[in-house]
Amino acid sequence: MPDKCDFGLVGLAVMGENLALNVESRGYWVAVFNRTTSKVDEFIAGRAAGKRFKGCHSVKELVDNLATPRKVMLMVKAGPAVDALIEQLIPLLDPGDVIIDGGNTHYADTQRRTAHVESKGLLYVGTGVSGGEEGALKGPSIMPGGSREAWPLVKPIFQAISAKVGPNNDIPCCDWVGPDGAGHYVKMVHNGIEYGDMQLICETYYLLKHALDLSNDELYETFAEFNRGELDSYLIEITRDIFSVTDELTDNHLVDMILDTAGSKGTGKWMSQLALDLGVPTTLITEAVYARHLSALKDARVRASEVLSGPPTQKYSGNREEFIDAVRQALYASKICSYAQGFFQLQAAAKEHDWPLKYGDIALLWRGGCIIRARFLDRIKEAFDADAKLENLLLAPYFRDVITAAQPAWRKVVSTAFVLGVPAPAFSAALTYYDGYRQARLPANLLQAQRDYFGAHTYQRVDREGVFHTDWIAQRRPPEKGGK
After folding, report:
1. Element (H, E) at 129
2. What is the Cα 145 distance to its own chain's centre?
3. Any idea of the CA torsion for 369, 375, 379, 385, to the nearest 10 degrees?
4. Which residues are catalytic?
């Protein structure tokens, strides 16, 4: 063992363990620490046995065992624990050392921490890490931001451990994103898009199951076919696999034995809240968040199902194969809208925070290792390469043509869901967003008139510059006798 290790990691939960093993597998010596020190001993004696690790029983011991400039990665629960560790580390580190937060942290916390750590002469990196437990071990998508001077110091390790894509499998899914909280913001948008993708796939499943009575075996074949086309992605692939798994306890398909309630860890909610702050219409992802909240009201839904009625039938009577293909097209068109909203919010955030984000490169970061990895991301890269100032992905020729071709099928699927009483909030949110975005004129003129009527909020006109107010009561047509 050398005198000093190349990399330090704090936090040996599953993600931390797997990431440490990934770093070690690339030839680096890794010092590890966990607040519960017995976990360190178990790791060193177990999965780390015989490998390039140094187990440490204190933060100071970990720092003392690192070569300079030191690089310490925190894989602990986001929030106060990160701040506490930073305060422990600051007096132990030297100028130029790097603190890295690899958790699911709110970008504003990373902005604050970057400024604080830099004020102490140290460097700070807030990085998104996507791919779950398997990705952490075998190659995640990594989205670092923070102190620009830290990038050359962490780049060799980060790019070595990240997923690889490309014809020769040599393009790392890791590159510098931008200053202060940019890395964690991009990770948040990734997670928000993940919410949207998952909800769209769930609605696809629900439509095919309830409108066509497809069996799980038929659903397996359907999603397998989807995955051979433009929908080729990790989430479609695992959805296919799910329909093939049998429950060992009941011999039923396992998916049918799982309670229909879903939780969330906050990143989808953050994205929706920040969209409201920025004034951008991230509607599909917000509907995906609400769909999870509605699913959590299981007891209330069961009670409501006994008294609230819907359409008398929930079966589609047309051609099955044609409807399956229509659902495929609707899924792809809705997916395009989801990504369009995600990148639109990224553009708004970049303007708000003066981040020099490269949107095509961000799409490449998500091609491998992460949950939303998909063939489709190459098209996003091509769109931004063709026009770095592209206002909305829907305006790129490829996506515009796909949406145009998919519209009849998309509208048929959404209208069929409404007629049959099958909930499809993400599908309908995507189509409503598209229809709203393509209108040169929306009914907000009436809304502005209403606001000016009851609150003197003023309005602008289409035929002249300036701000106007009308005394609507004085100018209105008198009501009929007996009216208000």
Report:
1. strand 123-130
2. 17
3. 40
4. 187, 194
Cβ proximity of 384 and 390 under 8 Å? yes
C-alpha to C-alpha distance for 237 and 240, rounded to whole angstroms: 5
CA 62 to chain centre: 33
Report residues of the chain scoring pLDDT below 50.
none
Residue 167: what pLDDT?
A: 86
**Are 169 and 179 spatial neighbours (Cβ–Cβ below 8 Å)?**
no
Question: What is the reported pLDDT for 484?
Answer: 66
Q: Token pair 């981040």 is at which residue?
A: 355
pTM to 2 decimal places: 0.94
The rounded Cα 399 to chain-centroid distance in angstroms is 20
> What is the bridge-based pairing of β-strands 71-74 and 141-146?
unpaired
Neighbours of 319 (CB within 10 A): 10
Q: Closest Cα to residue 205, out of 240, 247, 257, 244? A: 240
Amino acid type, 97: D
Pairing of strands 123-130, 141-146: antiparallel
Q: Which two tokens stand for residue 370?
A: 């992460």
- The answer for residues whose C-beta is within 8 angstroms of residue 166's C-beta and 6 or more apart is none
Residue 22 is predicted with a pLDDT of: 97
Instruction: Tell me whether residue 481 is exposed, middle or buried, using C-beta atoms within 10 angstroms of its C-beta: 0 to 12, 13 to 18, 19 or more.
Output: exposed
178-179 sheet: strands from edge to edge: 53-56, 30-33, 7-10, 71-74, 98-101, 123-130, 141-146, 178-179
Characterize the bridge pairing of strands 98-101 and 123-130: parallel
- 424: Cβ–Cβ under 8 A, 6 or more apart, which residues? 203, 206, 207, 413, 414, 417, 418
